[in-house]
Design brief:
single chain, alpha+beta, four-stranded mixed beta sheet
């Protein structure tokens, strides 16, 4: 069975889009998703300590186009994406929750609920009460004490180190074997790589008779 490693942070709206499309691509290709939560700001800082400044003070023309582009993609994917005033949020607890959800086989449902809570419902996903309520809504119960434990946070850090080692630099990043793909707009290439890895035949643009 083909597999795709998915490095992601809940703070990124483009990652929300990629998450939705990756689940569909995995279903179409009969593939599995390996969930790898990361804190993207730490990754970006490791590569370029000045990166946070450009994120907080973007070039106006580029910012206007990115807002339009994000809205176009949200419509295309039938998602509600609104950037809350507190963006980017502190995702530390939510990411630790992702580690625990993954251990319980609930990573997909938990991640969908976290993304929706922040970008559609404007909930504060930095708060323990919010994260625990979301976790319980998908069947992951009594996790408050485990969220406070060091182990889940250490796993997130380990994922960040692994992403950097493999040449990654942000969220969303996907690996199919050794091949790296970055960004929501690379999803057709990810699906093609999964199809090739699964041994299935895919008719690509330019190959139609």
């Amino acid at each position: 069975m083909a597999a795709v490693e998915f490095y992601f942070d809940y703070s990124c709206p483009w990652t929300y889009l990629a998450f939705t499309r990756l689940r569909e691509a995995a279903m179409r290709t009969g593939s599995t998703i390996v969930w790898c939560p990361i804190r993207v700001d730490r990754v970006r800082h490791e590569i370029n300590p000045e990166a946070a400044k450009s994120r907080q003070d973007p070039e106006p023309r580029k910012a206007r186009y990115q807002a339009k582009d994000l809205n176009d993609w949200a419509i295309y994917c039938d998602l509600t994406i609104q950037i809350p005033d507190d963006w980017p949020p502190d995702t530390e607890l939510a990411l630790s929750g992702a580690v625990l959800a993954n251990e319980a086989g609930l990573a997909a449902g938990y991640s969908e609920a976290i993304f929706r809570a922040y970008f559609a419902q404007r909930q504060d996903i930095s708060q323990m009460e919010t994260v625990c309520a979301i976790a319980e809504s998908v069947g992951l119960t009594a996790i408050a004490s485990r969220l406070a434990d060091a182990a889940p946070a250490q796993q997130v850090r380990a994922n960040e180190a692994e992403l950097l080692r493999k040449g990654g630099f942000g969220s969303p990043t996907m690996f199919v074997g050794e091949a790296m793909f970055f960004g929501n707009d690379r999803m057709p290439l990810v699906e093609y790589a999964l199809g090739q890895a699964s041994g299935r035949t895919f008719v690509m643009p330019g190959q139609h008779g």
